[in-house]
Design goal:
about 200 residues; alpha/beta; Maf protein; 7-stranded mixed β-sheet; 7 helices; about 25% strand; globular
Length: about 200
């Protein structure tokens, strides 16, 4: 029994986060966490984007950890800031087009957080930021892009999947590829080794 590793639950339905853990050879169960993100954010009025990403990651993990007390729960969240304005997931295709027109020619800051919670205790949390330089985009391109990528990008902050056609939105990217995909994977793997989920 001493060699038995803790059960890991990913508190997310994100396909990209699951793909990252799958590719890294991590064994886990994916169970989406239901939290009121807007309510949590409302209580974080003076928090930085990095702090908000971490707080939402902790909240997602904590929502499941109290139910699955035998497991370590991994929560993760991403948020986008452009010109000091926060952007959530688009509410419609038209709203996605508005976001993309606003992003055009600007720098997008993508903050990705992660946290490990066991029972009622946050064991670890971390956040990272990537800076994505959005190229000047025509309305014709935006409509063409959404013809191909909607509704999938409706589930993403920033209205893009970097592993798909979303890569066409950018001129340059500064930052870790995993952060861009939605989770700071290398620090997460380090924390999972530290907590015995992965071999060290």
């Amino acid at each position: 029994m001493s060699n038995e590793r803790p059960r890991l639950i990913l508190a997310s339905k994100s396909a990209s986060r699951r793909a990252m853990l799958d590719a890294a050879g991590v064994r886990y169960e994916a169970i989406p966490a239901e939290i009121d993100e807007r309510r949590i954010e409302a209580g974080l009025t003076d928090a930085s984007p990095a702090q908000i990403a971490q707080a939402l990651s902790v909240a997602k993990a904590a929502a499941l950890a109290s139910e699955y007390t035998d497991a370590i729960v991994l929560g993760s969240d991403s948020l986008v800031v452009v010109e000091n304005e926060r952007f959530d997931k688009p509410t419609s295709r038209g709203n996605a087009a508005e976001h993309l027109r606003f992003f055009s020619g600007k720098v997008m800051e993508l903050h990705s957080g992660a946290a490990l919670v066991r029972d009622h205790t946050c064991e670890w949390s971390h956040s990272d930021v990537a800076r994505l330089h959005v190229r000047e985009m025509s309305d014709d391109f935006i409509e063409h892009y959404l013809d191909h990528e909607w509704p999938e990008v409706g589930f993403t902050v920033g209205c893009f999947r970097i592993e798909a056609m979303g890569v066409q939105l950018f001129e340059t990217i500064e930052g870790d590829q995993f952060t861009v995909l939605g989770m700071p994977l290398l620090p997460v793997l380090g924390a999972l080794r530290e907590h015995g989920v992965l071999r060290s």
